Amino acid sequence: MESSRSPSSWSVALITVIPVLLLLILSPWLFSFHHHHHHYPPPQPQPPPLTVGPFIKNTCTNTLYPSLCFHTLSSIPLHHVHDNVTRLHHVLRFAIQKTLIRATKCRSRIAALTLNLQLVTNCIDLLDQTIYELEESMKPPLTYAAIKNLLSAAMTNENTCIEGFSDSTHPQTRRLGRYFQKSLTPIMRMISNCLAIVNHLDTLLGPTATTRLLSHPDHVPSWMTAADRRLMQTPPPPTVVVALDGTGNFTTIGAAVAMAPNRSALRYVIQIKAGVYNENLVIPRQKINIMLVGDGMNSTIITGSRNFVDGYTTFTSATLCMYLFDQFIYLYKNYVCMYFKMFCDKCSCYWE
């Protein structure tokens, strides 16, 4: 029997069937897309526009790098603090902490380079010193002058690292120098902003006795006690003796320093007998309260032989290097030293 359906009936049937067929064909692909898309991490939300309160805005206006200052301090909670001086103290501590975090991360990245290059080693040492100085600047009680000294020293370290690459003519070393400059410049600028905040605090409170340089009219540091002053004139009996001929406890000064106790509360007196000591001596920061006593002018001599021609940088060519920030007496008694470098807060040199 011949079908009696009209053409319009076939059109309706096709319109109904085609979408169903398309859905059946595309459904595996749609399921696959949904399945994979489900495992993608959600897109990161756009950071909100940076907003800072009037107090932070006013504080950052006094810095050399206000935009960086705004970003550094944008997340600091100050709603519970109403006194302006207390607020500034909170701001200063927060800014130093942020700088410390950045310096620590930078140090880790540089150490991960695993480059056997003296300039890189120098920069790591300098960053270690910067981290130490930033930590010390947050330890109470400190005068504003002491905080300024620590922050200024920390900023100088980065400059020293960058300048170390300027003498090189090797293209790879020059590229490395640009990398270090890009990495360290933000840290220097953050420290600069911290210094500006300290200066602002100092200005608000006005000149006081606590912001004076730590010195007396007689040129003796105020941290040095009367007993310490007497030590500069008449040294106590030695704790150990260094002598080249083997008649002492050690034949090298470095060995004597290495045996000194760490963070000692007692004075560790090293008497160095007459002789020419061909050493590049480094006194690490944990060796405090050390006193070096020589035998006389042109008798006790420390002479290193490192120089730029032999491949040493100026930073590493020092005959004597001291990394110290606690009380330390260094006695030059008729004592000759070609070139020495000090990273210390309480050091004293004396010679006759």
Oligomeric state of this protein: single chain
SS-based class: mainly alpha
Number-wise, the strands total: 9
Domain module count: 2
Question: How is the CATH topology of the largest domain named?
Answer: Butyryl-CoA Dehydrogenase, subunit A, domain 3
CATH superfamily of the largest domain: Invertase/pectin methylesterase inhibitor family protein
Total helical elements: 9
- Give the helix proportion (percent range): 40-55%
Radius of gyration: 33 Å
Q: Regarding CATH, which class of the largest domain? A: Mainly Alpha
User: How is the biggest beta sheet arranged?
Assistant: 3 strands, parallel
Mean pLDDT metric: 76
N- to C-terminal distance:
134 Å
Uncertain stretches of 5 or more adjacent residues: 1-5, 20-24, 29-51, 209-217, 332-338
CATH architecture of the largest domain: Up-down Bundle
Q: SSE string, helix = H, strand = E? A: HHHHHHHHEHEEEEEEEE
Strand order of the largest sheet: 1-2-5
Shape: flat
Query: Into which percentage range does the β-strand content fall?
Result: 5-15%
Domain Pectinesterase inhibitor: 51-197
Family: In the C-terminal section; belongs to the pectinesterase family. In the N-terminal section; belongs to the PMEI family.
Pfam families: Pectinesterase, PMEI
Protein name: Putative pectinesterase, catalytic
Task: Write up this protein.
The chain has 352 residues and is mainly alpha-helical. The chain has two domains: 52-205, Invertase/pectin methylesterase inhibitor family protein (Butyryl-CoA Dehydrogenase, subunit A, domain 3); 226-332, no CATH class. The chain contains nine helices and nine strands. Mean pLDDT is 76; it is low at 1-5, 20-24, 29-51, 209-217 and 332-338. The strands form three sheets. A three-stranded parallel beta sheet has the order 1-2-5, covered by helices on one side. The radius of gyration is 33 Å and the shape is flat. Residues 51-197 form the Pectinesterase inhibitor domain. Keywords: Aspartyl esterase, Cell wall biogenesis/degradation, Hydrolase, Membrane, Transmembrane, Transmembrane helix.
